[in-house]
Amino acid sequence: MDSIIEVKNLQKKYGDFYAVNGISFEVVKGEVFGLLGPNGAGKSTTMEMLVGLRKPDGGTATIAGHSIGKDASKIKQEIGIQLQSTSLFELLKVKEIIELYASFYPSHIPIQPLIDEMLLTEKQNSLVKGLSGGQKQRLAIALALIHDPQIIFLDEPTTGLDPQARRTLWDIVLTLKERGKTVVLSTHYMDEAHVLADRIGIMDQGKLIALDTPNNLVSSIEAESAIEFKTKSPERVDEFNHLESVTNIVVNHDFVTLYTRNLQFSLIALLEYTKEKDISISDLSTRSATLEDVFLSMTGRGLREE
Amino acid sequence: MRAYYQLTLAQLRIYVRNRQALIWTLLFPFFFMIIFGLMFNDGNTTTYSVNLIDYDKTQASKEIVSILNKQNSLKIHQKSDEEKARKSLSDGKTDFVILIKKGFQDQVTSKKNIPAQIQVLYNESKMGQLQGGIATITANIDGASKQMAGYTPKVVTTLKGVEGITLSYLDFLVPGIIAMQIMNNNMNGVAGQIASWRERGVLRRMQGTTLKASTFIAAQITARLILNSLQAILTILIGYYGFDVSIRGSFLLVVLFVVLGTLTFMSIGFIIASLAKSPESAGPIAGFISFPLMFLGGVFFPVNNMPEYLQPIIKTIPITHLSTAMRDIMNIGATFGDLASDFGWLCVWMIVSFLIAAKTFRWE
Fold first, then answer.
1. pLDDT the model gives residue B161
2. Which residues 149-208 of B are in CB contact (within 8 Å) with A?
3. Averaged over B350-361, what is the pLDDT?
């Protein structure tokens, strides 16, 4: 396997606080690599260091064979970026701004097909100001693609978009992959990571806490299913550990999640035990385990909490 | 080169599409010329308002009145109510009251050696300002008296005015407005725009491409030079065709100082953008600096009239040199040699602020 990105022990410090605390991973040419984690986990900082917008305080990384910090301009030709906080000149038209960004590079791909492909044909003569959130993100991706880079960094491309706009964007990312581009994508939506990413690195508090394919990650928590309910006496949930087939318990205030290898056995055991001990439970439901549960079982917190 | 052209074009498009800025730019000079032109366009000539009461109403008294009437600096109003005239004098509404008593002609023609009296009343508290008026009135009445007496002087002084340049207040104002526009557009404009682009991540996104910072800055400068030159030309044309402002100097010299002023104030704008923590603070900082400069820098008022203790400041700040140079070129057709010191001062300002700007500039 050809690694196109190699990251070794990368660090970024703000004062005493490590935004990124020594992470290492490799991205294989042609894959979609997902960085999954809650806000503030260090995903954006990691990406910004890789694309050369922030200087790492420690560690190294190479992109397409060029080391970051040394060959910045060579790297910039190999990568296309869409930043979370990007805004563009509001008073330029879509086509004008694509032409502008095209002029920043030694060579670029034909502009009209790119506009068509990003579904911006009807909007090409509209001001950036008047675009919807989804259109702005597609424009940002068009700008990332204009010089035909090998690697594309997308930092939370679907945050704040409506479901339909998100799916449109997913299709675009999958098309990029089909064309052999390498995509590094950060997100805090586990469904997005699951659909798009070949491999996922889960980040929390500046560290990479897991790295694998989505399916392996889900099976790593040794649970096929989750049982969720509310209880008035969450302090007693430790007792549920002994219930049959339960592998892990996560408590969030009065909301309890039990992970189990065998839903049927665990559920019966739970009901019998709570009846016997007179523990009241409500809002009981069951479902299959997901990436969200991987994060939850590793950190005890949900992906979208503060 | 393509990036430079595209960025320049982009900046010009942004400017043209920013309706508010554009309207402000186009209307601003016009607006100022109308307001200030109406307020002050009398130029430097002072006139005195005179209430005259002629009780005599004879050949002699009428001759005196007609002589005084010919003086441009005296505005003679013939009245009949002395009470009212005295009241308006003590209220400060008029400057003089001239009374020609009954029997004036008789006194003039009488063989006795007592001269006829004309009474001139003035407001004592305004003595200082009225000197010119008093001189005009006495000189003219004296002349009339000599004429009536058939007196031939032995010695006369001949006064001859040499033709000079007549300048109205608008002639003074228009170059000042150009200087002010250059300062505002560049210092305030650059500070606000760069700070806001930085805050919103516009600059950071460009930093992620192979674009060089020098190309970006060069394009900014080019676009602003084009805008400022057009604006200066527009202001001059409005002044010339709309308000009859005179233009005597070389057009190239005007352009040279437009360029110099643009570069100087752009650099200062970049410094402010770097100092400002947020785009919201960039505006007030720039305003805080430009507002006093506008009044101290000879934009609206001549700097020579400013208090002595301010002179060292006035002679240092760049806007003074820009407005003075513009004014000298347009009003009296100054040559480059005449403006060497203003040119030098502006160059020093430009170089120093450019160096500081380059040192403090940051993309984010």
1. 59
2. 200-202, 204-208
3. 88
For chain B, give the mean pLDDT: 84
Measured between CA atoms, the residue of chain A closest to residue B207 is A53
- Does residue B256 carry a pLDDT above 80? yes
Domain spans of chain B, in order of start = 2-41+167-360, 48-148
CA distance, residue B198 to nearest chain A CA (Å): 10
Give the residues of chain A that fall short of pLDDT 70. 1, 86, 300-306
Listed residue (A222, A198, A268, A265) closest to A35, CA to CA: A198
Q: What is the DSSP letter of B303?
A: G
Residue A83 and residue B208: Cβ atoms within 8 Å? yes
Contact A81 B206 (CB under 8 A): no
Q: What is the pLDDT of residue A306?
A: 40
The minimal CB distance from B6 to the residues A77, A100, A147 is found for: A100
- Closest-CA residue of B relative to A149 is B209
**What is the residue extent of each domain of chain A?**
3-214, 222-288
DSSP designation for B200? T
Alpha-carbon gap, residue A200 to A43, rounded angstroms: 12
**Are A245 and A222 in contact, with CB atoms under 8 Å apart?**
no
Architecture of the domain defined by B48-148: 3-Layer(aba) Sandwich (3.40)
Q: Which residue has the higher pLDDT, A12 or B106?
A: A12
Strand arrangement of the beta sheet that strand B118-122 belongs to:
B74-79, B48-54, B96-100, B118-122
Of A117-131, B104-118, B182-196, the poorest mean pLDDT is in: B104-118
B84 touches chain A (CB under 8 A): no
Looking at the domain A222-288, which fold is it?
Answer: Alpha-Beta Plaits (3.30.70)
CATH code 1.25.40.10 for A3-214: no
Whether B213 has its CB under 8 Å from any CB of chain A: the answer is: no
| Minimum Cα–Cα distance from B13: chain A residue | A92
CA atoms of B167 and A159, how far apart (whole Å)? 64
Q: Decide if B5 and A103 are in contact by the 8 Å CB cutoff.
A: yes
Query: How do residues A212-247 score in pLDDT, each as one tens digit?
Result: 998 888 888 777 888 999 988 877 778 888 888 888
Of A137-141, B65-69, B180-184, least confident by mean pLDDT is B65-69
- What is the per-residue pLDDT across A130-160, written as a single tens digit (0 to 9) for each? 999 889 999 999 999 999 999 999 999 988 8
Chain A residues 142-201 with CB within 8 Å of chain B: 143, 147
Quote the ipTM score: 0.80
Q: What is the pLDDT of residue A304?
A: 52
pLDDT of residue B42: 53
Q: Phi and psi at residue B93, in whole multiples of 5°? A: -85, -25
The DSSP result for chain A, as a single string, is --EEEEEEEEEEEETTEEEEEEEEEEEETT-EEEEE--TTSSHHHHHHHHTTSS--SEEEEEETTEETTTSHHHHHHHEEEE-TT----TTSBHHHHHHHHHHTSS----HHHHHHHTT-GGGTTSBGGG--HHHHHHHHHHHHHTT--SEEEEESTTTT--HHHHHHHHHHHHHHHHTT-EEEEEES-HHHHHHH-SEEEEEETTEEEEEE-HHHHHHHTT-SEEEEEEES-GGGGGGGGGSTTEEEEEEETTEEEEEES-HHHHHHHHHHHHHHHT--EEEEEEEE--HHHHHHHHHSS-TT--
- Using the predicted structure, report yes or no on whether residue B187 has a pLDDT greater than 80: yes
